[in-house]
Design a protein that fits this description.
mainly alpha, globular
């Protein structure tokens, strides 16, 4: 499936602003994949479909979580998190995407997790830093994205956790696991050493 076919499939499922966001994530993901030596075609498809279920009916997503092999603890957290794992499930079932790398990148693009693959990190980061994003800390993450993928992902997860805590919102456990895992990977870098 090429980029234009994929975008034509996803477009009817998204609001116009979200579709524009998706196109920017695609461009950012391809750029990051090229820079970090990852498969640009996989990055492209994962980016196109990362928000495939963003506007699915909440009850439908809840039903998928309850009946399928998805973490049931998702139901205790904000519905904003649901579209990623449900999106990976439905990208496989409805669209026939069977590449586990692409599906993993879709599934983990909001929360992250410990032990993310390079492709998962690229989609997680591309969604966070695409040029339409404007919030405190994003420019520092963008700068690091051009230097150190792990450090950029660490900063993104750290910013997300700090933001949620400042709003007295719960933090999904996999986001903490991602933070801890990435911290271990970049600790020397944070302490002034080199990776």
């Amino acid at each position: 499936m090429d980029r234009y076919e994929a975008l034509s499939i996803v477009e009817p499922h998204l609001k116009k602003s979200r579709f524009e966001h998706t196109k920017r994530v695609v461009d950012t993901a391809i750029e990051l994949a090229d820079f970090y030596g990852e498969d640009t075609k996989k990055a492209e498809l994962a980016a196109v479909f990362h928000d495939y279920c963003k506007y699915r009916d909440i009850k439908e997503m809840e039903q998928w979580i309850r009946t399928e092999d998805l973490p049931k603890n998702l139901l205790s957290f904000h519905q904003e998190l649901w579209h990623a794992p449900v999106g990976a499930l439905l990208a496989e079932r409805e669209l026939g995407i069977d590449d586990k790398d692409i599906l993993g990148a879709i599934r983990w693009h909001t929360t992250g997790k410990a032990g993310m693959t390079k492709l998962e990190k690229i989609i997680f980061l591309a969604d966070y830093i695409e040029p339409g994003r404007d919030f405190p800390g994003v420019d520092r993450v963008r700068d690091q994205a051009k230097i150190n993928l792990n450090l950029a992902c660490f900063l993104a997860s750290k910013n997300t956790i700090e933001f949620l805590m400042s709003k007295n919102q719960p933090v999904y456990p996999d986001t903490f696991y991602a933070y801890n895992d990435l911290l271990i990977q970049v600790k020397e870098n944070l302490n002034g050493g080199k990776n």
